[in-house]
Amino acid sequence: MKIKRIGVAAIALAAAGALTLAGCSSSSEPEAPAGDSTAIITTNGSEPQNPLIPTNTNETGGGKILDSIFAGLVYYDGEGAPHNDMAESIETDDAQTYTITIKDGQTFTNGEDVTAESFVKAWNYGAALDNAQLSSYFFDSIEGFSYDENVDELSGLEVVDDSTFTVTLKQPESDFPLRLGYSAFFPLPEAAWEDLDAFGENPIGNGPYMLDGEGAWKHNERIDLVVNEDYQGDRQAANGGLSIIFYATQDAAYADLQGGNLDVLDAIPDSALSTFQDEFGDRSVTQGAAIFQSFVVPDRLAHFGGEEGKLRRAAISHAINREEVTDVIFSGTRTPAHDFTSPVIDGYSEDIPGSDVLEYDPELAKELWAEADAISPWEGSFQIGYNADGGHQGWVDAVTNQIKNELGIDASGAPYPTFAEFRTAITDRTIETGFRTGWQADYPSLSNFLGPIYVTGAGSNDGDYSNPEFDALINEGLSETEVEAGIEKFQQAQEILFEDLPAIPLWYSTVNGAWGEQVENVQFGWNSVPLYYEVTKSE
């Protein structure tokens, strides 16, 4: 099955003059979609791992909420192209020093103005080592950032006036403006600093939606959002609000959709993948999305360090018949992986040297496993941890059965009840098995699938992988001012990943979704998340 490539507008330096993100918005007001503007849209979600602080949220449950209640300097449209949101302009002459101007009259929902300080103070907090924010890595290209010592204020951030600040990077990085729609770069009001933990339970944002009063986040149940009438950006809500329900299983969410008790579902359970399109017809979608699925087997686990670990990971990879799993378990709605990124991102390639480690080859798998046994004989069982509330049991059982059968070892899944519990075990490094991983792109670039996950010390480097040669290539790619030159470096970096296998690539996800009879104007974006602000509903 081929995944449709989404064209993403590249950001590149002109030979002379300034790079500017300005005037990206439509010059005329879009026609308001039909529907009840007061209707609440219900959708599925998952309990966030942490309080809703933008720089400490790097998982999809919390990210879906943050993207609805906050507005960054830019936002991404359905195809992943950036458009100014809070930014009036983002300008540079050299791709190293950027001058950012905030639009006049922007406010948080408590009435505070959105200013340059709102961004700079939030970024400084997110970058500081002592604050241990999961997304701190996103600030490491800014001058003054350090992994070795705490820095309270980055030297590369300077407030010029209420509406203007400058960002100086350690080196030129032409894709820096493209990153600024990610939640790590969202602003925070002054009220947040009074008690940040309390703020995370009832965040005050500046986006198209806001929390429906104190306690709108009912843990492990739902979060209720209403329209922010003061939001002035392009993402004006065509409905009256959004209720995100945290389901224990995807099957339960699907049953509610079938029964008319859920409006929009963005994850179809395995049990319905072969039938949902027939059932929902033109109220369903299967399309490419910037999502990569894998599993990690950390070096720290017995038998997976050093050369022995490389051999065992390669053996496991060759023991997996990805084509069979995607056909049987996912009814062809996944595509076997050929790299560590996504086919919908510009620069994707199926021909990276070393990618043959992803080919199903049971004989080679046995040979590699035997070579590892010669270093240290295998003992124990092999497991893949996963969250039971995310519809992963089917493929985990299939993959571990293949590993068991081809390598002749004991292998099985290791379920955790909820996504939040699962992610906490990974973050705290208390998980003692391999574990499923996935990446939903933060912004449309190859580097976003590589740097945040595999660079030494990166916030989403769950396996604690470290290879200086890989780090250097990512750094070189980011410093290129020509997009194609950067892509070449990122592909060279992937050659190292295929040798080390810090994660074992499985497949690319498509977004499979459906919606109810009363719902219209449903569009799923480049990263698989519906554009909820466009959805309309008749009561």
From TrEMBL:
Residues 1-22 form the signal peptide. Residues 25-58 are annotated as: Disordered. Residues 82-459 form the Solute-binding protein family domain. GO terms for cellular component: ATP-binding cassette (ABC) transporter complex; periplasmic space. Residues 39-58 have a biased composition (Polar residues). Keywords: Signal. It holds the Pfam family SBP_bac_5. One of its GO terms (molecular function) is peptide transmembrane transporter activity. SUPFAM superfamilies: Periplasmic binding protein-like II. GO terms for biological process: peptide transport. This is ABC transporter substrate-binding protein.
